[in-house]
Each structure stands twice: as C-alpha cells, then as structure tokens.
Design brief:
By secondary structure, the chain is α/β, with parallel strands linked by helices. It has helices spanning 23-30, 61-65, 88-101, 110-117, 122-125, 138-141, 164-168, 172-186, 203-212, 226-235, 245-252, 264-272, 287-300, 302-330; strands at 35-38, 71-76, 104-107, 128-130, 154-158, 191-196, 218-220, 238-241, 257-261, 279-281. The longest helix is centred in the last third of the chain and has 29 residues, at 302-330. The protein is globular. GO terms for molecular function: transferase activity. InterPro entries: Polysacch_pyruvyl_Trfase (IPR007345).
Amino acid sequence: MCLDADTGPDRWHPVPVHRLFGEHALEQVNARRGLVIGGGGLFLPDTWPNGNSAWQWNVPDEMISRITVPLAVFAVGYNAFDGQDYGRRRFAESLRALVEQSSFFGLRNHGSVERVRDLLPAGLRDRVRWQPCPTTVTRHLVPGWTDPAERADTALINCAYDRAGLRFGHDYGHFLAEMATAVRALRSRVEVRYAAHTPADERFVYDLRREHGLTLPVDPLYDFTNDAIRAHYARTRLVIGMRGHATMIPFGSGTPALSLISHPKLAYFLSDIGRTEWGVSVHERELGAVLTERATALLDAHTAAVEDVHARQRELWRTTSGNLRELARTFA
C-alpha cells in the first residue's frame, strides 16, 4: 500500500522469504521492475533458521550479488532478543552483501538501525536509515479512511507466547498474577477483551482462568480480514499489547496503546514516538498497579490521548513520505 495503489497479483509477484532463493527465484525477480524485502522482523535467527544467511531470508550471498533490479529493504525489524545467540559472523556477512546490493535500506525503528549499523563496516553504516512500519501510518494509507464517530467501551489485551522462555524467564507466574490485578481494576471502567493475533496467543486466557478465575472474551484476529483488524482496533478505547503489531496497528488506526515489553523492539518504537511511558516491562514488580494507573490515565483523557497519537503519527508519515518519494524514483 505504501508503494502501489494496486496490491494484487497483477502488479506484485510474491517470493516466499523462507524458501531457498535459488536460480528459478532469481530469474523471476530479475524479470520484474524491482525487489522489495519487507513484511516483518526478518533479521531474526530462529523460527526458520538457515545456514545461508542466518536470518529469515534463505538466500546465499552469491544470489544477492546476482540481483540486477533495484532492491529495497523496507521497514524490516532487527528482532533478536537481548543476549540471544545466533550465527553472528554469517549474519554479518549476509547483511553486508545485502546492504551493498540495495538501493534503499530502511529499518522500522532506530533501535534496529543502531544494532544493524554496529554489524557493518564504517563505509556502509550511513546507508541504513529509518523507515517506520507502514502499520503505524494506517490512517494515511487506507483510501477513504475515516476515524470512528464512536468507540466501544472496551480495552483489548494481547500477549505473545512464541519463545516464551526468552520473554518471561522465570517471571511468568508473577506476570500472570499482576495482569489479573490489572484486569480486575480495569473492569470497573471498560469491558476487557482479549485480542489474539495467533491461536497460541490464547494461552493467556486459559492460564488466567485456571490460575485466577478470570474469564475474558476472545476476539480471534487471526480469522479477521486486514480491514476488519484495523476497524476492530480503531473502535476500541485502549489496547494493551505485547506483540509489536499489537501496539503498532492500534497506533496506526488512531487508538492509544500501552506496550507490555517482553522484547526490545517495543521499547524501540515507543522511543521513536517519544512516549516511553506507554511501555511497562513484563518483569516490573508492580506491573498490575503501574499498568492500571497508566491505562486509567489514558481512558480518563481519551480525547487528548487520541489527538496525541494523531500528532505523533504525522511525524512518522512525514518520514515515510520522504522515503516513498525516493523509492518512486528508484523504481521508475
């Protein structure tokens, strides 16, 4: 949507990122106007490990060097956890080959920019720039977008359970108990619902009911269309999310959001928009009280909070617009 009004197969040829990028894929890509690499926190060593690049795109260096069309890395994230072990040397070599070949290299937050620059030789570091995730500027991208005239008296919670050991360590029981405290407190103000991005996210609902006797209605966003997801987040009053996109999609739809920080990328985003106070670590000893206080403040001043989101989104759109003008020339 950032790059082309027509998002369908007549204009875009999808290349699965986890499939080996071999001769056939190279031939298909070089027959197009350009190659865009995007769609997630691709600088990640696990979930789909491979020995060719040590990140999510399964591409040998030789194949990168043989791409003849303009190549743009667009709003990708560096999604390694703090202290996570991976094939650093192989990753750094693949990364260098990719930056050298690219016409545009944009990462979705300044934290990712800094960490990737640290892995590059000095002569390539300035080629890495900031390109916010397009989900954060949804209101500027969706044709005919209108902000909701009314919002439901709801707050949505989302938690992530992939790589739970890296997210929670030994603190999961504490986290669950503190979240139960926050849910009980917020129920006096709004209906608290659960927004599941994947079926695995629903573990929070099961554990909360089993351990603390609390039941939350579940909205299975993984079964929603993109438009329905955006509309659902736009109509609620507040989102409390652990996944990066459980903060960025609501924000992009104009909804205040608090982040449950179990991964550095959430803090990176909040730093980019100058609102680090919208994040609370999952290891915070007084998580329930802190979360309740900050959520209540946003609910009490809801109109002002929405205006604040809009203002900060305009800054992200200014950066995105400048990058898109450059990309239009690259892919002309």
